[in-house]
Amino acid sequence: MAMISRSNPQTVSTIGFAVSADPVRAAFQRRSMDALNRIAMQASTESLAEALAATTDIGTLARVLGDAEAVGSAVAELEPLAPLIARNAEHKMELLSAAGGSLSAEDVGLLLGITRQGVDKRRRAHGLLAFRQGGDWRYPRRQFDEPSHEVVAGLPKVVQAFAEAGPWVTLDFLLAADDTLDGLSPLEVLRAGGWSDSIGRLLDVERGDGFA
Fold first, then answer.
1. What is the CA angle 55-64-137, rounded to 5?
2. Cα distances (angstroms) measured from residue 30 to each of 27, 35, 37, 156
3. Which of 56, 72, 84, 158 has the greatest CB tally within 10 Å of its CB?
4. How far apart are CA 115 and CA 105, in angstroms?
């Protein structure tokens, strides 16, 4: 239900969203809504329109929180890393969308025909690309050749090469189109024909083992 605010007749307050009975969740809801209300009132309509252009509600939040002007200078001074964290979160969502979403360890086990323990073993050996989400591991979907029930040929080499850099750097490399690959991404090349010397050379350059 919506009503006109008495303190500001140009604003409308919305009432009726479910408040959690859990005190921690309820406190998070209150603080989040307070912050969003402040941003909505002080951000420019251009900033809000840009945020609304995101394809998901989470993307909208990430965009507006990544805009220091929208968040406000006072808040940015108190939380100087907030815009950077928000932009990083949005980039991760974009990468994950381009990777076809993600699968759980159980889904991967069914796809590959192995146990959950087998999936964990491959992940620890850097044979699978995975990232932590909450208390579990998630696996970007496009690393799998689903018709053959296998990992895309050559992909573990990339995962092993970027083991220290982490899964998001690895995924960024796999999905970025490159002129040396005729405008294709390394993942597209791997899916089309497996490992190639051109991917190896590009990998060396990205890791600093070669020359651009």
1. 60
2. 5, 9, 11, 44
3. 158
4. 9
Edge-first strand listing for the sheet containing 102-104:
102-104, 136-140, 131-133
Q: Give the number of other CB atoms < 10 A from CB of residue 46.
A: 11
pLDDT in tens, the chain (212 residues): 344 344 444 444 454 567 777 777 777 777 777 777 777 777 778 877 877 876 677 667 666 666 666 666 555 554 555 555 666 777 788 898 999 999 999 999 999 999 999 999 999 999 999 999 878 999 999 999 999 999 999 999 999 999 999 999 999 999 999 999 999 999 999 999 999 999 999 998 887 754 44
Q: Cβ contacts of residue 85 below 8 Å, gap of 6+?
A: 65
Which positions ≥6 away from 28 have C-beta within 8 Å? Answer: none
Residue 133 is inside which H or E element, if any? strand 131-133
Every domain of the chain and the residues it spans? 22-98, 102-206
DSSP 129: -
CA distance 128 to 150: 11
Backbone torsions φ then ψ of 177, nearest 5 degrees = -65, 145
- Distance separating alpha carbons of residues 148 and 38, to the nearest angstrom: 51
Distance CA 169, CA 177 (A): 14
pTM over 0.85? The answer is no
